[in-house]
Amino acid sequence: MFRRNTTNDHADITPIERVTSVLGSGIIWRGSITGRGGVRIEGTFEGEINLNGLLVVGETGRVTCENVQANTVIVAGAIKGNITAEKLEIRSSGHVWGDVTIVAFSTEEGAFLRGNITMEEQVNFNFNEPPEDNSLPAEQPSN
């Protein structure tokens, strides 16, 4: 009934990544999550999320961000803030308070969303990629 036109080829969409980092239950973190990969949040996070990859907010996860930006966002917990994603999935236990801009959207029965939904043919991201050199600075000799 509500089928999207699938003739557009989205070859430039990043494939879904697996979870490589977890913010565990009982952890409270304030700051920013940026980079490339998959992150699962089971604790509480406040700050900025700008992720080239997968973001999973587990059932015990609580996220408060002005803007969440990720390729794929799966919400089983709660997000307070606007979401920009290629794909957003809100599970039956998930709650979202904020406006969403997405390419694809799915929910389960019982999911909650309070905000506006804008569906686009393509979403443009402004990912803040970390520098390629992740080496630690050389240790300075002590005198």
From TrEMBL:
Pfam entry (one): Bactofilin
InterPro entries: BacA/B
PANTHER family xrefs: HYPOTHETICAL CYTOSOLIC PROTEIN, POLYMER-FORMING CYTOSKELETAL PROTEIN
Family: Belongs to the bactofilin family.
Protein name: Cell shape determination protein CcmA
The organism's taxonomic lineage, starting at the top: Bacteria, Bacillati, Chloroflexota, Anaerolineae, Anaerolineales
